[in-house]
Amino acid sequence: MGNSLKAKMTVDKQFVLAEVDPRLYSSFIEHLGRAVYGGIYEREHPLADEYGFRQDVAALIREIGVPMIRYPGGNFVSGYNWEDGVGPVASRPQRLELAWRTLESNEVGTNEFIRWARELQSDVMMAVNLGTRGVDAARNLLEYCNHPSGSYYSDLRISHGYAQPHGIKTWCLGRQRLHSWRTRILLKMH
What we know:
CATH architecture: Alpha-Beta Barrel
Number of helices: 5
Radius of gyration: 20 Å
Order of helices and strands: EHEEEHEHHEH
Number of strands: 6
Strand order of the largest sheet: 1-2-5-6
CATH superfamily: Glycosidases
CATH class: Alpha Beta
């Protein structure tokens, strides 16, 4: 029958090679289907909080204990203009979302997501659009989220009701195509 390969595995919970980084159990949320609208956010739902986020869904996520959540997702971020998702919701533009062929209302954006994730005690990994945008838009989002005050984008955040910087520490460059590249860089850093 030829040579056959055999494998053997020994599992011993007392034998530990290393700690498992809790970020391994992270997740992401994307403006796709019912993930955001009708999933985590549904203003008219009887269990929605004052901001429109469903507390039944939040309770389940808290129970799981998701350490970090990437936003705004995968394919969606490749065509997303982050500026559309900040400021007064009534003034936000509705855009044709080409990845999923839907109309994006931009009711949920950067500040709403960050507030929601922090309520869940999850860290935020903010994704930047490197599909249709570039480094300049990414730099502006970083300034909006993290710079204290005195610059255009930090003062814009303040005018939107967020006096304190969000302090985002983990950033995703683009979407899945860059993940293996990013992982290799992170591994070389440790």
